[in-house]
Design brief:
Helix content is 11%, strand content 42%. Strand 3 and strand 4 form a beta hairpin. The chain is built from two helices and five strands; from the N terminus they run H-H-E-E-E-E-E. It has a domain at 1-26 and 52-93. The longest helix is centred in the first third of the chain and has 8 residues, at 5-12. The chain is mainly β and 106 residues long.
C-alpha cells in the first residue's frame, strides 16, 4: 500500500509531530438557559468530560496542541486543520496510540 505524501513527511519529522494520542480531559460547561432562573433551582455543577484524538503538534508542561487533519497538498508543506489547544491542568490522561498505521482499502 502506498503511504500518502503528508504521512511520509510526518514520519520524516521530529518525534512529537508524528505521535498520535488520545486525550481524556475536562472542560467547563455553560448553563445556557437564556432566561432568568432562581439560583436554588440550579443543579450541582459538574465538569464536561471530553475525549480527543489527534496528531501532536506541540506539547510542554502547560499546553498540548493536537490536530485532527494533516495535508501537504496546499502549499507544499505540511498543513493542519482542526487544531485544538488543551491546557495541561485540564488533562486527565494522554495515551499514545501505537501501531497507528491504518490500512485503507477501496
Amino acid at each position: 500500500m502506498r503511504t500518502p505524501m503528508a504521512l511520509r513527511k510526518i514520519k520524516e519529522q521530529a518525534e512529537p509531530v508524528r505521535k498520535v494520542v488520545r486525550i481524556s480531559w475536562i472542560d467547563s460547561a455553560s448553563v445556557d438557559l437564556n432566561d432568568w432562573v432562581s439560583v436554588s433551582d440550579l443543579h450541582k455543577p459538574e465538569p464536561c468530560s471530553c475525549e480527543s484524538v489527534g496528531f501532536v503538534l506541540y506539547q510542554d508542561s502547560e499546553m498540548i496542541r493536537i490536530t485532527k487533519c494533516i495535508s501537504d497538498n496546499m502549499v507544499g508543506d505540511i498543513t493542519a486543520g482542526g487544531i485544538l489547544d488543551i491546557p495541561m491542568v485540564a488533562v486527565l490522561t494522554i495515551t499514545e496510540l501505537v501501531n497507528g498505521e491504518l490500512e485503507y482499502k477501496k
